[in-house]
Amino acid sequence: MIPLFKPYMPRNLPEINAILHSEALAYGNWGRKFEQNLGEFIGNNNILTVNSYNSSMLVALTTIGIKPGDEIIASPMSCLASNQPIVTLGANVVWVDIDPCTGTLDPDSVRSKITSKTKAIIHNHFCGYVGYVEEVNKIGKESGIPVIDDAIEAFGSEFKSLKIGNTGADITTYSFQTVRLPNTIDGGAIAFNTSELYNKALLVRDYGINRKTFRDKDGEISRDHDISLPGYGATLNELNSYLGVVQMQEINKLLVKQNQNAIKWEHSLLNKFDNFKFLGSSQGYKRPNYWVFGILSPNKKKLIKQFFNEGFSASAVHYPNNNYSVFGNKEILPGITKFYSEFFAIPCGWWLE
């Protein structure tokens, strides 16, 4: 069975043994190198790495000052990891509907749910498929509400030839967990559209500590160094950072392969099934990273079974989060209901021949 997801790991990793015995295991030179590589790839140098996707969202939300009782607009049709940090901070999730043809936020639904308590809009780019970038960003700017691009599955996806993370959102969060690209076993990153947000997040990522002034000339913790921000121990260690550096050397090759696989799927499936359509296209101004290849069909269960019979894993990937009681909001949304009844994904990754 060809899997829907598969961890990528380069075979040649010559520095691992040296790192493990270097006595420099915490965030350091490899961490800074990885951030540099990410910034160059995305086209945005205001980027920092973290030790998990959960940390990326927690640091992002804390940086913009989210507090208990604040409202955050989000899509229930996304990874649980995208929305769980909202309730961790005591904020309230306000579910908005999606376009059932794309799986991404419906801008009209977003606009209709904004209140005086709305403090952020989380814009999930579902399974790497790019959403309504300009429309959602415009709503955020007009309302004075920060937009967080949720790129948990969208590293390398593009809008008008620009990488997600450099397309106008205030903040972008990424996951580098095992089945993402790049894969650092666990980890993530956050990109910011201003240096002010970036500099504040540097402190939030590391317990609110400014490492440049934390210790005095004798190496003791300085009595003059104040901690004024809440924060997390969220830095990415050197071993994981090194894995990221090596994977970034091959990221373009892997993404090209996935795009080629998507084109092959489009050609090979056109005459194979009835009553279906592709979630997105490899052409146009929105370019998915093809973490998976998305299909919409009212015959979802039948087609999933057919793909399994032909040796391809197939799955709905995510379960609508508005079904989970932890969020305290089980609002039924018609776009979510229709999309989930029709969407499934098949393998499209670098391993697919």
Mean pLDDT level: 95
Low-confidence stretches: none
CATH class annotation of the largest domain: Alpha Beta
Which radius of gyration do the C-alpha atoms yield? 21 Å
Would you list the SSEs in sequence order as H and E?
HHEHEHEHEHEEEEEHHHEEEHHE
Fourth-level CATH superfamily of the largest domain: Type I PLP-dependent aspartate aminotransferase-like (Major domain)
Query: What's the number of extended β-strand segments?
Result: 13
Count of structural domains: 2
Give the biggest sheet: 7 strands, mixed
Per DSSP, the total helix count is 11
Annotate the secondary structure layout.
Elements: H1 16-20, H2 29-42, E1 47-50, H3 53-63, E2 71-74, H4 80-88, E3 92-95, H5 107-112, E4 118-124, H6 133-143, E5 147-151, E6 158-159, E7 162-163, E8 171-175, E9 188-192, H7 195-205, H8 238-248, H9 251-269, E10 277-278, E11 286-287, E12 293-296, H10 300-309, H11 334-342, E13 343-346
Parallel strand pairs: 2-3, 2-4, 4-5, 5-8
Antiparallel strand pairs: 1-9, 6-7, 6-11, 8-9, 10-12, 12-13
Helix pairs in contact: 2-8, 3-4, 3-7
Describe it.
- By secondary structure, this protein is of the alpha/beta class.
- The chain folds into 2 domains: 16-248, Type I PLP-dependent aspartate aminotransferase-like (Major domain) (Aspartate Aminotransferase, domain 2, 3-Layer(aba) Sandwich), CATH 3.40.640; 251-346, Aspartate Aminotransferase, domain 1, CATH 3.90.1150.10.
- Helices cover 33% and strands 14% of the residues.
- The chain has helices at residues 16-20, 29-42, 53-63, 80-88, 107-112, 133-143, 195-205, 238-248, 251-269, 300-309, 334-342; strands spanning 47-50, 71-74, 92-95, 118-124, 147-151, 158-159, 162-163, 171-175, 188-192, 277-278, 286-287, 293-296, 343-346.
- The strands form 3 sheets. Strands 1-9-8-5-4-2-3 form a 7-stranded mixed beta sheet, with helices on both faces. Strands 7-6-11 form a 3-stranded antiparallel beta sheet, with no helix packed on it. A 3-stranded antiparallel beta sheet has the order 10-12-13.
- It is globular.
- The model has no long low-confidence stretch (mean pLDDT 95).
